[in-house]
Amino acid sequence: MLAYLMHRSLQMVATVFIISVIAFLVIQLPPGDFVNSYLATLSGGDQITQDAVEALRAQFGLDDNLLVQYWRWISNLLMGNFGISFQYQRTVLDLLEERLPLTLAITIPTALFVYALAVPIGIYSAVRQYSVLDYTFTFVGFIGLAIPNFLMAILLIYVNSTYFGGNVAGLFSPEYELAPWSVGRVLDMLSNLSLAILIIGLGGTAATMRVMRGMLLDELSQAYVETARAKGLPEWKLILKYPVRVAISPVLSTIGFTLPHLVSGTEITATVLNLPTTGPLLLNAVRSQDMFLAASIIFILSVLTVIGTFLSDLLLVWADPRIRL
Amino acid sequence: MIDHTTSTRRRFLQLGGAGAAVAALGLPVRQAAAQSKYKEAPALAKLVADGKLPPVEKRLPPTPVVVEPMTSTGTYGGHIRTGIIQNRGFQARSAWGPEPILRIARDGGTIQPNLAESWSYSNNGRTFTLVLRKGIRWSDGAPFDARGFEFWWNHINLNKQISPAPMAQFIIKGTVPTFRLVDDHTVEWTFPEPHANLPALLAHGVGATIPRWLPRHYLEQFHPAFTDEAALKKRVADAGFTSWVDLINNRTNVQWLMPFLNTDMPTLLPFRLAQPMRQNLLVADRNPYYWKVDPDGRQLPYIDDIILTNFESAEIRDAAIAAGELNWVNTDTTFTNLPLYKENATKGHYVTRLWKTSRAAEHTFMLNHTAKDPELRKLFNDIRFKKALSIAIDRQMIIDTIYLGYGKPAQLQMIPGSRWRDDTLAKQDTQYDPKGANALLDQIGLTKRDSQKIRLRPDGKPLRLNLDVPVDDPGSVAVGELLIEFLREVGITMNVRSVAREQVRALIDNNDMEFGVWIGDKCSDTMFPHSPEWHVPYLTTGWNVWGMSYAQWYESGGKRGEAPTGDVKRVQDLFDEMQITVDEARRLAIGKEIMQLNARNLWNIGDVGEVPIPVILGANYVNYPEDGVTSFDWLGNHHYNVEQTYFTGGAWSGERK
Amino acid sequence: MTAEATTSEIGDEGAVAVPAAVGKVVSPARLTWWKFRRHRLAVASLVFLIAAYLVTLFASFVSPSSPSTRSRYLYAPPQSVHLFDKDGTFRGPFVYGYRMSRDPKTMRLVYADDPSRIFPLALFVRGETHEVLGLFETDLHLFGAPGGYVFLAGTDAFGRDMLSRLLHGAQISLSVGMISVLLSLVLGLLIGGVSGLFGGRIDTVIQRIIEAIIAIPTIPLWLGLAAAVPRDWPPVYQYFAILLVLSLVSWTSTARVARGRFLALREQDFVTAARVYGAGWFRIIARHLVPNLMSYVIVTLTLAIPGIIIGETALSFLGVGLKPPTVSWGVLLQEAQKIQTITFYPWLWIGPAACVVSIVLAFNFLGDGARDAADPFSR
Question: Which residues, at least 6 apart from B413, have a Cβ–Cβ distance to it below 8 Å?
Fold first, then answer.
């Protein structure tokens, strides 16, 4: 086991390194560079000559070749310096410190909410296949999937503000936006977050619930279930003990992806609900080719991805004893 | 070049005098007659009582600027609630009342003193002198004086590390002017030729941007010329940066003309940064040292603070308006959402007014006259082709379908009321005439058609126009969709591609865009003489698609881009002349000729003019016009002095409890 | 429990069973079909889907107009079909004309029925010429209101008939998107299968590649691609090219899941048996392993279909989606993502959303039925 861990850790380091190289190159794919997008933010009154533009490129180091730029970034990063964001004129670390805590405060409860709701519903739907409730869950689930997140969010916001007097613009109700941090302010923030959690959670819940149902149906039709049943095990105990443990494998297989997803995957909802999470930050950084910011966030994502898949592999073995890695 | 030297000299005298005269007269900004007892906001009075702030007389200049209220003097209190979209702050610009060095008067045109109390030309117009107001203080209490200009000019503007090139708007005939600090309140620049547009520039973006670098008492600590190297190095490292340039840029970071990151950064605006953008929320509160008062001697601004929310999408911003969460949105509203705004106005405690903009046409469609494809290039330079395109557009249809019946067919000339506007030229080639368009295209020789009835180019390929539309402008996407059908009628097929703004930039810069569209703003008298972005190809950082290669040539002095000939060369020469011509009659003639050349060449194809813009203001918000103008040309609408506005009763009626 | 099911004694590979009720040997396919037929919802779904595809195929004939024909009735609500007029007289199926006016307060167009204008509906009416299946031109339409107009699903911002747009939109959404879904599924199952089946070094390499694909952001990829796709291609081709790339990066979760399952299954006796008999890995995956994942496959498919239709809306956000005048359900949903639509014009989002939901539900129930029918163990 120890050898496996060592081996795997080495692999993880190598993977992260390779991903960082690829990511750095992929960021450069769209035409133009940060100076282009910087110029795009200027309005007609700001006038900059071509010489100044070239000097700006030199100042940002964009006229060096990509390898040099990569080395500059990764060597600094290894020493704990994430560089600065051209766009925000702030250090990347400062930006992350602002946004990561809130991101986690939203995404972790969302992930828990999704699993806590989806797994039991999935199990119920499989065991009571074709019951009224199963059909209801199916129907509601697919409505959740068929309406784009953005549309769904606008809909919920509209309903919330029109019929329940809720708040459109984000994190705080007006009475708390200027107040210093207090218990009331935190509660207020959480109540505004609940809508976010609901909206991000809906899509995920519907998908996970369908997967759980499908896998469990596959598993329930296996011979060993019939055998166990014949031996007289109580139905619920039987289902929970074996088939569920196996059927949960897709959820476990992809649980590794939820870690990076927690950081990047809430773009749409964050956009709609005006939540200052890392999602929109990454989206903007990538769009405007704010290199160090984009590369640094991607670096963090890749670290989370490899750790996530590692954990997910361990969970797979734990859940299904037949698996050998 | 200038062959009327005597008359220009006389003009200079008059102009300099005019500046002084306005300062003395005070229209509507005038000096206080007597230094009576001044009053201040209750919150500030409490700070004074607690000994945390000097008394108001000590904070105000000896003779503070008196701002005439638009209708009535106000009461202190209330929050301006505004919003920006995706951190693009065009909206925010006017919310905290930019304080440029000079300013535009409420009439939207006249230039007035502001931070500077007068300006004048001398030395045959080549020397420009600014005299600053005395006794103004920064928001931290430090005095504001001309030594800040010396710091900005010599240590920022001419420092190669932080400014790759000196500010372009100060460069006349390719030469950086010489700067002189005359005394504590006077500065002057000497140019090779008179810089005729400088007052207008100082009353606009340039004049509003410079103050960022003027608080020298604060900025010296970040500058190597004034700070011991070891101390600076430590300061830089502690903040997580690697160079002093990064640090000073971060500390002085200004977005939308106001300090944005750093609450310590001194400002001269009515509001100062109280809480930087965190959790998409920014707060700017009253500047205790603000240097303007109302006629009763009450220190402005009346309103307590500005609460600004960053919205990640325009739709959600509009949802927030409809829900009654904002009371001050007026430069980037969505016209098509007018019914939504109107419907919820009463419930949301706001009013929706319709103001004018600086758009001579909502959109300008521009064919790249230096397109890489030789066949297209030939067509795009053929006036018959451009005419055909223009009259193939059913502008009334655009008005009825997109603009709720508002607007008139228009070319991209100047807005009504402009001294350079010619109503005939503005309407020329705007009548809907598909038959005429087809005839013109036949006349060019595009008579062969394919099975889809699309005309074939001489090389046998179907005639296709590729229009690139910025993805964040729903208006041009909608007009583009209609244009596809209009052009199909005359046998031209069109592809619309929506492109992210950053990519639009790259496409234009590399001469890769064939057909582009942009909002047709900047067509007002405040902007046109110094920034005729659409009418003259001179600006390489603008969005002029039709002549970007010519602009590159112009700006690089012939090193890049493509040399213009004929009418294009002529408008560039005219623009050169405009920059150094002070004589108003000549300026009028120059502008008229530029407009005529534009009409003759149809470099821009306009769609619909005189479409208003919805303006959202709190229901009990006072001292702002019923019928105003708002656009980048007026830095939003800063010329209405947001500092003298207030809510009746001291709070917005829609404020939630 | 029926006789059929109880008497089925079925081996691993679905050996021939003899239903007592029938008393003669039937093929597995026929048996599956019998079982499927008993699944009423599945049958209904199948019928619905066949009908939907037929309608889609002949969209230009079924719809009253082309998707880009504009009318002067902007944002008009759906008309309802009446049989009796206001006086109670039977008039056959008809719609009322609109009485259109501008609300002076909001400047919005508002509509009411105009009882004086009655447009009877008729079958097989002449209208705009259109091409059927790209074969021949005709001006015949399934239905219409001769001498009037009919907008059964309302109109959009340009006064275009929503019903016609929905029907034409189905052509893209039910074809192009599906291909990408299938491609991504096949890739996922194959690559995941190989990874799980062989394990060891191959598994390691494939898993690391998956990690890389997951971690690399797709946005710059799209932006780069949007610039790279030739502009002379028709919008549908451009879109298809982008979907192909989309499926090339979206197979990863399926692959992870398949691999997880196959790691367990490869130790099972039947796999070993198949190996001993010398079956190739492709055959093992396709014939032995994937059937064990049938439900998962169906679930993935039914999840991927709305995913891809909606994914389009996210692509348009970056400027790489379908471009006008091409319509799809994704485009329609994208156009509907406006607060004003939700407040004033709900038919603009309810229409496309209802289409997507009903198609996906139909695929889902069909999938459930097919799975039950194919599964030898099902009750």
Answer: B360, B420, B421, B422, B425, B426, B523, B595, B598, B599, B606
Chain C: partners with 3+ C-beta pairs within 8 Å: A, B
Question: What pLDDT band is residue B21 in, cutting at 50, 70 and 90?
Answer: very low
C235 touches chain B (CB under 8 A): yes
What superfamily does domain B1-28+98-258 belong to in CATH? Dipeptide-binding Protein; Domain 1 (3.90.76.10)
Paired residues of B308 in beta bridges: B82, B282
Residue C19 located in a structural domain:
no
- The CATH number that domain B70-96+270-357+612-657 falls under is 3.40.190.10
Please, are residues B441 and B465 in contact by the beta-carbon 8 Å criterion?
no
Is pLDDT of B647 > 60? yes
Contacts of A242 in chain C (CB under 8 A): none
- In chain A, % of residues over pLDDT 90: 2
CB atoms A301 and C306 under 8 Å: no
Looking at beta carbons, which residues of chain C come within 8 Å of A249? 257, 260-261, 264
What is the spatial distance between Cα B372 and Cα B355, in angstroms, rounded to a whole number?
41
Average pLDDT over residues C96-115: 92
Per-residue model confidence as pLDDT tens digits over C44-75: 999 999 999 999 999 999 999 999 888 999 99
- Pick the residue from chain B with its C-alpha nearest to C345: B340
Contact C336, C162 (CB under 8 A): no
Is C256 within 8 Å of A287 when comparing Cβ atoms? Answer: no
pLDDT digits (tens, 9 = 90+) for B365-380: 999 999 999 999 999 9
Q: Say whether both C120 and C252 belong to one domain.
A: no
State how far the Cα of C91 lies from the Cα of C76, in Å rounded to an integer: 24
Residues of C in contact with B342 (CB under 8 A): 105-108
Q: Give the gap in angstroms from C-alpha B297 to the nearest C-alpha of chain A.
A: 29
The CATH 3.40.190.10 portion of chain B extends over 70-96+270-357+612-657
Q: What's the rounded Cα separation, in Å, for the pair C179 and C240?
A: 9
Here the tokens at position C275 are 């190996």
B280/A158 touch (CB, cutoff 8 Å), yes or no: no
- Give kind and range of the element (H or E) at residue B274: strand B271-278
Same domain, C97 and C220: no
CATH number at C335 reads 1.10.3720.10
Number of domains chain C contains: 2
| Residue range(s) in chain B whose domain bears CATH number 3.10.105.10 | 363-609
Looking at residue A265, what is its pLDDT? 55
Chain A residues touching C342 at Cβ < 8 A: 154-155, 158
Give CA separation, B481 vs B295, B493, C324, in Å: 53, 12, 6
Q: Residue A175: which of B319, B556, B656 has the nearest Cβ?
A: B656
Residue B631 contacts residue A44 (beta carbons within 8 Å):
no
Its CATH architecture, for the domain A101-324, is: Orthogonal Bundle (1.10)
A151 touches chain C (CB under 8 A): yes
The dihedral built from the CA positions of residue B546, B550, B556 and B562, taken in this order, carries a sign that is positive
**Mutate which of C8, C41, C201, C211 to test chain A, going by most A C-beta atoms within 10 A?**
C211
Provide the residue range defining the domain that includes C114.
79-151
Same domain, C205 and C106: no
Amino acid code (one letter) for B192: P
Q: Which of A131-140, B22-31, C316-325 has the lowest mean pLDDT?
A: B22-31
Contacts of A256 in chain C (CB under 8 A): 256
Q: Is residue C15 in a domain?
A: no
Residue whose token pair is 């001006």:
C139
pLDDT at residue B18 in the model: 40
C294-317 vs C252-265: helix axis angle to the nearest 10?
160
Contact A211 C303 (CB under 8 A): yes
Which value does ipTM take for this structure?
Answer: 0.82
pLDDT digits (tens, 9 = 90+) for C318-345: 666 777 678 888 888 888 888 899 999 9
